[in-house]
Write a structure and sequence with these properties.
With 567 residues, this protein is α+β, with helices and mostly antiparallel strands. Helix content is 40%, strand content 16%. The chain is built from 19 helices and 16 strands. It has helices at residues 63-74, 107-116, 123-143, 169-181, 192-197, 202-218, 229-232, 238-247, 259-275, 288-292, 301-305, 325-334, 360-390, 394-399, 405-416, 456-472, 486-495, 497-506, 537-547; strands at 18-19, 23-31, 35-42, 47-54, 85-91, 94-99, 105-106, 156-158, 164-166, 311-315, 318-323, 342-345, 351-353, 511-519, 524-530, 558-566. Strands 1-2-3-4-6-5 form a six-stranded antiparallel sheet, covered by helices on one side. Strands 11-10-12-13 form a four-stranded antiparallel sheet. A three-stranded antiparallel sheet has the order 7-8-9. Helix 15 (405-416) packs across helix 18 (497-506) and helix 18 (497-506) packs antiparallel against helix 19 (537-547).
Length: 567
């Protein structure tokens, strides 16, 4: 599928223009910073091609020789992810480069479309996969001794099926040559040593990969004083900041030494991001498919129109299909294709997990979210029915307001036994409330600080606190993303209020602020903090009481909640 044609600028080449007595222009496709791209017919071979007409400022007496040399070097590249140049020539009114048609849209176009919908960048998952696909293509080029030199969002194409194609090898050679002749014309994607020598290198490509990753994450080029990626993308690990910073260093020896090394570091950063959960699941954030057609509210119409049956789905040891992409989308929405199933291109043999496919990943996540919501609703309804069958009257007592206080005190005192007779004159209630109620609430996420506000000692202390919490808690984000509703948690805590009250009384404490975490799959409490501490007699008593409670199991890693009570 070729890219959709865009309105042609006033000075574009008209249709049926023939360049070099060979290439007949058919239609204008797009503009980039240095070229205008046209679909054309190669009359000599009778095949469709793209003509990349260079802007006038790139013309120089040496441009023809530079392009010819670049075409000769890069033209031999046969990787499926590379659109290698097949010809270059000078024909009034323009110099031009010829490639086979490149499917899809440039990453630059997709970023602009996402910006129109209020979305910044692709998110960690899609940005990383685009860069890793470019690295895979680069590895084949580097193995043949060919370096790019000017990788950017305008040289990376992404089609509707998520295929990434790297272009611009000949154009990059010309840009590098131009930068060497005049450093004021150096694009930001070209490393300083490449511009100085006029020769592309692997270190220069590593530099460009860092620039590319930054722009895919942040939606704009990296500039001095600009924000860190972790300040733009929610929950992005600092490993992304470190990787981009190291690749942007002016000294090549201090960068990752190879594109493959950059890829390994990026995969580690992706693993860190995966442990925190999806960074692109915020409400209102469109998927990559939506960015291709931002006027739609669901998915790209091109997907639904794709009727070519070229895709297989592997489930366990069995393959099903072939299906068209529109059929794949329909099966995902029905829940027939799930996380862990493998999508196979029946033509090329390429395989990818559906949840890792750049276009389908968000659809899979949305379908899983709907299933999670449905299961949670069913679980809460079943729990409510069980509570009703038990005939509990506690909520009715609470609804009675102050009059219910006496009954709650009776329940607490009755369970305490003769040894706790003093408790008969006391009550347990929520701070600022006149009745016993757990008042479960979920801790708010601390606001992200873009700049440190304290000295080194304070920063070390803050890091230590975060580190200890991370070590203390099993915060794996694998599985679903359900979380218990606070009313469900409240009802369980209410029924065990007597035990919590005894803990306060026996430890001569009048107040306790309790933070705890419920493990989703088991419904058991697995972490407790009392008054900010995880030791002492009071903590031990409340810890045992909470761990003895059984909450409904959900398809999610954890639910963290807190409440306060006092005597």
């Amino acid at each position: 599928m070729t890219a959709d044609a865009q309105p042609a600028p006033a000075n574009s080449l008209p249709a049926r223009t023939v360049l070099a007595d060979r290439y007949a222009i058919k239609a204008y496709v797009r503009s980039t910073s240095f070229t205008e791209v046209y679909s054309a017919l190669d009359r000599q071979t009778d095949r469709a091609v793209f003509v990349h007409a260079l802007r006038a400022e790139l013309a120089s007496p040496a441009s023809g020789q530079v392009l010819a040399s670049a075409v000769q070097a890069a033209g031999k590249l046969g990787h499926a992810g590379i659109a290698a140049p097949i010809d270059a020539a000078s024909a009034p009114p323009t110099d031009f480069i010829v490639t086979l048609p490149v499917p899809g849209h440039t990453a630059s176009e997709l970023l602009a479309r996402r910006a129109e919908t209020g979305t910044v960048g692709f998110g960690a998952r899609n940005a990383s996969r685009i860069v890793l696909a470019a690295i895979d293509a680069l590895a084949a080029a580097h193995a043949d001794g060919v370096y790019h030199g000017a990788i950017s969002t305008e040289t990376v194409y992404i089609d509707d099926g998520g295929q990434v194609t790297l272009t611009g090898f000949a154009l990059a050679a010309l840009l590098v040559h131009r930068a060497a002749a005049n450093s004021s014309h150096t694009p930001p994607c070209i490393a300083a040593e490449v511009a100085a020598s006029g020769r592309a290198t692997e270190g220069g490509d590593v530099f460009a990969l860092g620039m590319l990753l930054y722009q895919l994450l942040c939606g704009r080029p990296l500039q001095k004083g600009g924000p860190r990626p972790s300040e733009v993308v929610a929950d992005l690990p600092s490993a992304f900041d470190a990787l981009i910073a190291s690749s942007a260093l002016p000294e090549p020896r201090r960068r990752p030494t190879t594109a493959a090394g950059f890829g390994q570091a990026l995969r580690k950063a992706m693993s860190a991001a995966a442990s925190r959960g999806p960074t692109q699941s915020r409400p209102g954030m469109p998927s990559l498919a939506q960015s291709l057609a931002p006027q739609q509210s669901a998915i790209d119409a091109n997907l639904l129109a794709d009727s070519e049956e070229k895709w297989l789905i592997s489930k366990g040891r069995l393959d099903y299909g072939p299906f068209s992409m529109s059929e794949i989308v329909a099966q995902i929405e029905k829940g027939e294709i799930l996380t862990g199933n493998i999508l196979i291109d029946n033509h090329s043999g390429e395989r990818v997990f559906v949840e890792q496919h750049p276009v389908l990943a968000d659809l899979v996540e949305q379908a899983r979210q709907r299933r999670d919501d449905s299961r949670r609703a069913d679980a809460e309804a079943a729990y409510a029915r069980r509570e009703k069958r038990r005939g509990t009257t506690l909520y009715a007592v609470i609804a009675g307001g102050v009059a219910a206080l006496g009954l709650v005190v009776y329940l607490i005192v009755g369970a305490a036994g003769d040894d706790d007779s003093e408790l008969a004159q006391q009550s347990i209630d929520v701070v600022s409330q006149g009745e016993f109620r757990a008042a479960i609430r979920f801790p708010e996420k601390a606001a992200r600080k873009t700049r440190p506000q304290a000295g080194k000692k304070t920063r070390r202390s803050q890091r230590s606190d975060r580190s200890s919490d991370t070590l203390a808690l099993d915060l794996s984000e694998e599985g679903g993303n359900e979380r218990l509703d606070n009313s469900v948690i409240n009802s369980v805590v209410q029924r065990h209020g007597r035990r919590l009250g005894r803990c306060l009384h026996k430890n001569s404490s009048r107040r306790a602020k309790i933070d705890f975490i419920i493990h989703g799959p088991t419904g058991r409490v697995n972490w407790v903090k009392v008054n900010g501490q995880q030791n002492g007699a009071l903590h031990g008593c409340i810890d045992r009481a909470l761990r003895g409670m059984k909450f409904p199991a959900v398809d999610g890693p954890r639910t963290r909640a807190e409440f306060e009570m006092e005597l």
